[in-house]
Specification:
The complex is a heterodimer of chains A (about 240) and B (about 300). With about 240 residues, chain A is α+β, with helices and mostly antiparallel strands. Helix content of chain A is about 25%, strand content about 30%. In chain A, the strands form four sheets. Chain A has a five-stranded mixed β-sheet with strand order 7-6-13-5-14. A four-stranded antiparallel β-sheet of chain A has the order 1-2-4-3, with helices on one face. By secondary structure, chain B is of the alpha+beta class. Chain B folds into two domains: about 170 residues, no CATH class; about 130 residues, Cyclophilin, CATH 2.40.100. Chain B contains six helices and 19 strands. Chain B has a seven-stranded mixed beta barrel with strand order 12-18-16-17-14-13-19. In chain B, strands 7-6-9-4-1-11 form a six-stranded antiparallel β-sheet. Classes of the chains: A alpha+beta (about 240), B alpha+beta (about 300).
């Protein structure tokens, strides 16, 4: 596990922020996931929760049981162990997306600017295997990595006041799905009928950091069919084990 | 059986709309890695005080009332207390005191008037509010709980109350400085070291003025602060009290409903008490940041003496 030179910083008095090199890359994601699993296994006595991001992991601790310096000492000791095993099986999630004109508000503009056909764009977007780095910003918003460079496109100059639940967007080198209605500046290229955040389930999100995601193009008819199943609670997100 | 259920079901009825009123407890813990904000009462100090005055557990849900209060009718007998901001409360048209427990009967009406001191008042009831608990918390938050605010016509369930068990004379005086302090205690944020010496001096000498953009998610400052050369960070954690600086040099203090992650440099971190104090401030109020004399600093001092 002891692969990177980590930085440790206090976040107020309640958490330790652990930082990896300032890069977005899969080996760092893997290293964070292993460390995170190990922390939960070995430091569960006083660790309240851990929050991963692209190149950081924040460890919230019970201030009545330990001080920041003690937490950092334990973290350093755990990170120094040679254990390389991934403790969790990761999954590849198949996310149905309808790229129909009805939803893809900005797809024509992007294709025009990039001089590629809609078909080519959809083929590229749906062939990528995207890494789930973490969930943040909104409940159930997956931060994905691995968008094909040919599909990078700048944020809209004027953000939309309302982006629909399930809208699939592109902003710079990122792609993602809005889990609920929200204002936003991403370019909208389709919509997924799936529910990305469900308060009645535990865990509330089907994907976790370390998983992968692939978008599967569907037509309007299929979209309506899946949406009905999702709304009635009868849809199980499709996945396969990988890694 | 029907009678028993009816008897157990004690309520308050919201008779009018207000600016922003919601049920809050001490927050939704353990769901940040799913993107769920911690939420909870903006001024925890005042909320805990309300519960303490009622001999409640300190984490019971209370009603957070912002600047203008709704008219509230008690449909059942209970004991209540108001803490936090003084919004000129009246019971059945007669002025009542803050931080003082009152016993009410069916049809008693609580109303509010002028904002005298502070911004957020807390209404605690004996046994707490019994609205929907989602993911371990009663705190209302859009997309997590069925309702995000309390509106006219809403009926909120409260714990049933047996008056004979409780005799209270709890009363307490809260220091006005909780509402009027001009100094907010901070520690260094993760990107504090990106500030130049000049910027650091300015950060602690400048008087900051609150922008109209101030709510449960965050408080923006009106001042223009010299922007950082290297402002962006790879998206990382933000927590209540994190002070971010935008590319144009605006400071934003994250509050209880803030997103779990952000992409701007985090230069300072408010202590929890400082968040409580800021939560009682409004547009155009002013304050300075006050760097906490940290253990780290004391540690350095000690090692210097050792040298």
């Amino acid at each position: 596990m002891n692969k990177y030179k980590l930085k440790y910083k206090p976040l107020g008095s309640i958490a330790a922020l652990v930082e990896w090199p300032k890069e977005i890359q899969e080996p760092i994601l893997k290293n964070i996931s292993i460390f995170r699993n190990k922390i939960h296994a070995d430091m569960g006595e006083y660790v309240l929760e851990t929050v991963p991001a692209y190149n950081s992991l924040t460890v919230f601790f019970d201030t009545s049981k330990i001080k920041y310096s003690g937490v950092v000492a334990d973290l350093k000791e755990i990170y120094a162990t040679k254990d390389q095993k991934l403790l969790t099986a990761y999954k590849l999630w198949k996310i149905p997306v309808c790229y129909d004109k009805k939803f893809a508000l900005d797809l024509s503009e992007i294709c025009k600017a990039k001089k590629i056909s809609r078909e080519k764009f959809i083929a590229l977007h749906s062939s990528g295997l995207y890494d789930v780095y973490f969930i943040g910003f909104l409940p159930g918003f997956l931060y994905l990595g691995g968008l094909d460079e040919k599909l990078h496109f700048k944020r809209r100059d004027k953000p939309r006041r309302e982006i629909k639940r399930g809208d699939v967007g592109i902003a710079g080198n990122q792609t993602g799905v809005y889990p609920r209605v929200s204002p936003g500046g991403w370019n909208i290229i389709g919509n997924s009928p799936l529910s990305f955040f469900d308060v009645d389930k535990f865990p509330p999100c089907f994907a976790v950091a370390g998983d992968k995601v692939q978008f599967v193009p569907i037509g309007l008819e299929e979209y309506e069919k899946i949406l009905k199943q999702v709304e009635s609670g009868n849809y199980v997100p499709q996945s396969e084990v990988y890694g | 059986m029907f009678h028993k259920v009816r008897y157990m079901d004690n309520n308050i009825l919201i008779l009018s709309d207000s600016l922003q009123t919601s049920v809050q407890d001490l927050g939704r813990k353990g769901y940040r890695s799913f993107g769920v904000p911690i939420s909870g009462t903006m001024d925890k100090y005042s909320a805990i005080l309300a519960n303490k005055l009622l001999n409640n557990d300190e984490d019971l849900p209370v009603l957070e009332i912002t600047m203008t209060g709704p008219k509230i009718m008690f449909e059942d007998h209970t004991l209540f207390v108001l803490t936090g901001a003084d919004l000129s409360p009246e019971l059945n048209g007669k002025p009542i005191q803050m931080n003082h427990a009152y016993s009410v009967r069916t049809s008693d009406v609580l109303s509010f008037g002028k904002m005298n001191m502070g911004v957020r008042a807390y209404l605690g009831v004996k046994g707490g509010f019994l609205t929907e608990k989602v993911m371990g918390s009663y705190s209302m938050y859009d997309g997590v709980t069925p309702k995000s605010t309390v509106k006219k016509g809403d009926r909120l369930r409260i714990a049933s109350y047996e008056s004979e068990l409780e005799i209270t004379t709890s009363k307490l005086k809260v220091k006005p400085s909780h509402f009027t302090t001009k100094k907010l205690e901070v520690t260094k944020g993760p990107e504090y070291n990106r500030l130049t010496k000049k910027q650091r001096d300015k950060l602690f000498s400048m008087t900051f003025k609150i922008d109209p953009l101030c709510n449960r998610m965050g408080y923006q400052m009106k001042n223009k602060f010299p922007p950082l050369k290297n402002n962006e960070i790879i998206t990382s954690i933000t927590i209540p009290g994190t002070v971010q600086i935008t590319p144009s040099g605006k400071l934003i203090v994250m509050m209880r409903d803030c997103p779990t992650t952000g992409g701007y440099a985090r230069i300072l971190q408010l202590t929890d008490m400082a968040i409580n104090q800021l939560a009682q401030k409004k547009e155009n109020d002013r304050f300075k940041f006050d760097l906490e004399s940290s253990f780290e600093f004391l540690g350095r001092l000690v090692s210097r003496f050792r040298d």
